[in-house]
Structures are given as C-alpha cells and as structure tokens.
Amino acid sequence: MCLAIPGQIVELLPDGHLAIVEVSRIRRTINIDLLDAPPPAIGEWVLIHVGFAMSRISAERADEQLRLLAMLGEDAQAMEELDGYSFGQDGQDRQDGQDGENPSLAVLPIPAIPPVLPE
Amino acid sequence: MRFVDEFRDPRLIRQASDEVRRLADPSRHYRIMEVCGGHTHAIYRFALADLLPPNIELVHGPGCPVCVLPMGRIDEGLSLVDDHDAIFTTFGDVMRVPGRQGSPLERQARGADIRMVYSPLDALKLARERPGRHVVFFAIGFETTAPSTALTLRRARELGVDNFSVFSNHVTIIPAIRAILESPDMRLDAFIGPGHVSTVIGARPYAFIARDYRKPVVIAGFEPLDLLQAIVMILRQLRDGRADVENQYGRVVPWDGNLPALRVLADVFELRPYFEWRGLGFISQSALKPRSQYAQWDAEARFAMAGVQVTDPNAAQCGEVLKGVLKPHQCKLFGRECTPERPVGALMVSSEGACAAYYNYVHRRAEAVGEPA
C-alpha cells in the first residue's frame, strides 16, 4: 500500500482522467489526475499508488523501483495489485488473457544511486 | 557484514558503512527514528543493523497505517455491515487486522459481504454496479493514499453516486512526529524522513523539526545504500552541530511535494480536531475527514456513528513497541500467541509493521540457524 509501483504510460484514454500503463507485460488502467499538467506522454514512467499515478519518474528510477520491490520480496504483491485494479474495465473481466500466469519481474539492468559520500 | 556482497553496489555499501563507523563517536549512543514503515521493512529485510556500529540504534516510527489504527475503528467500520447491510471494502492490509469480532477476513469467511479492493476507485465502481446496496470504503493511509481517496470522493460527487461512502481513517504524519518530539521520554537524536509520503508533502513540512527541536531530518529512499547514506548525512549534521532538513531521495522527492495532490486534499478533506492513535493516544489535528460538502459520502456523518473506543487485547504490547519502549521480541505474545499467520496485534499484520518485519527477517532466520531470537 505504501510502496509505489512503477508503470509506463502506453495509452491516454479520451476522458482525460485515465491512462493505460504497462509493467512486466501487465496492462492496466490507472488515474492520472494527481499528476502536474501537462498530461504524461506515451512512454513516460510514473509511480503508482492504489490506482493513481503520483509522480513522473525516469526510466532509470522505474528500473530501480522494480528492483527494490523484488529485493523487498514485494514484487509479486505489487503485480497482483496492479493486476487487481478493476475501475478501468466496464464490467468485463480482463483484457490481456494472462489468466493463470503468475506475473514476475524481468531481470533489470542495475541503475546507480548517485553517491553522496564525498563531502 | 555478511550480506554486503549480495547488495547491488557492494563497494558503495562498504564505503557508506565505513563512513558511518568513522563518523559515529564511540562515546555516544545515537537513537535515530525511521518514521516510515516501508523503511522499517527494508531495515529488517536487509539486516541493516549488521552494517552499523552497535551505538547506532534505529527506532521504529509510527508510519505504518494499520499499526497505529485503534481497534475501535475496525469494529466501527464493520458495524456498517451489520447495521446498514453495507458492502465493506478496503485494502488487503486491513483485511487481516483483528477487530473485537474478528478481522474483516474472518468476518468475510463467516459470510459478511466484505471485499478487498486495490484502489478506492474500485470501491466506487462496485457501488455503481450495485445500485441497490450501500458500498462503504474503509479508507486508510497517510498522505500517500489520502489524495486518491479525495479524488474518489470528488468523482462520487460529480457522478452523483448515492450509494457510496468513505469511512476515513486517513492520518497525517507531521502531528505524529510532533507528538513524539513532545513526549516526556523523547530521547531521539534525528529522523530518517519517509520516502513516499514526502513525494506528496515535500520536504518543507519537516522544517519545524530542525528549527524548533534542533533535530536533523534526512528524507531517504528504501534501498540499503539510501538508508546508509541518510545515516551518514545525519551523523555529519550531528558532528557539525547542525540541524537541517536534507533530501537524500531527491531523485524521487521534490522539495515542494505534489501540488495537484495537496490541492485535492485541501479541497475535499479537513482536519479532525483530534484522532486516536494506537500507542500515541489522542493527537490533535492529526487526521482527515471529508468536508461538509461531502457529508453525504462521509460514512460517519451519513450514518451518525458514535465513535466507539476499544482497548487493545491486554496482553499485546503494541503501544509500547510503537513508542519504541519495547523491541518487538520483548512483547509477551511475540512469536507465540502472535505471529504473522495469526496476528493478535496490528503490528504483526502489515509487512510495514515492526513486529511482522522482525518476525520474518530476524526471528525466522535465527530459528533456521538454531540461534535464540
């Protein structure tokens, strides 16, 4: 609930409030009203909390967050959460036909945390 | 330092750990509070204490929403199912929090219409699909999740969804930190500021901690290196006699926070005069409730709820652990009556709770190698 899930914007929906994000082959609809204007661009990464994009991040930060979730052992839970958002789907169940497949995170390149050690 | 080589930047980790040892004055004992439950989880998961000298003590803070929620709120939320035939919706973390008549999950197993949702918008969607039933969303969380509830309330009002309401348990982190600073047994030297809450509120609200209480605050990310770097920054401030707000997590946390989120929070919510926190007692202006123009979607206003107070199970010492007076394993129930599988107290429920984190990463590991935990 308190750790953010990164997602890449793949489509902006016409109502202006919603966008489709993808992460590790899961696509889900999220709300983008809490982001500063202008609306996010296709391909941009965002951090998601409980169905809402809360901030824009670089692709490098997105990788870092995915790795962090894996390191904390919360990656499966994060994917389950993303997969569980239902508000973008009017009545019908799923759109990606991945039932039964346990989503997992791809192996990601290692981004660097900028060292702050030198005074 | 048995785990250093498993980290992704072992060289930097070692450097940071060496720097912590160099900076720590051996004649002093340092008590540093990590405010956020996500940090508590990371600290145990990565066995960070193994990378610190013994005179640096990390104290677990109040930043775990289900941990600080008094049991009476769970009971009161669930009463809407019994008294008003409402469908009760909430996040997964809340599902396992014990109430007087069982957790939401146990009530669900006994046939109550209780559903886990991943987003408040899912609860609103359910209400629109089930116009004949009232759907209540049991909202919980700090400033990380409160803007999402606020937007959901705004959406419910725009759409005129009459059969939906929010039972708000949203709390704000700053008054809790102030309460800790004001408590008579306060012995902290510095704070590691929360990561994701700060993406919403920014770094500014912590200024009073440095200015009025002369305690350093460093906002940190969640990786071992982030936390070690934050401790280095804190030790440098203490060595130099400074008290500043610094942002180690600047790559994600903007100094001013998230303005659209702060705007919708201010528009939809107002501060309650006071709110009860487990372990910390009543703290004034520390929680959020919907403003009067949202009264129709505010479960407490709509159903005229009384506000029950329920004391925690006597034997569980959640409050003491939350205040940092006891370590998790010093509670009488820890690891015996109270486990993550069968939690008695809320700190054993969430992965961000100090007891669950301690149990999963210290207790289990010690058991596995046959050491006493």
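qc> Residues 5-84 of chain A form a domain with the SH3 type barrels. fold (CATH 2.30.30.140).
qc> done
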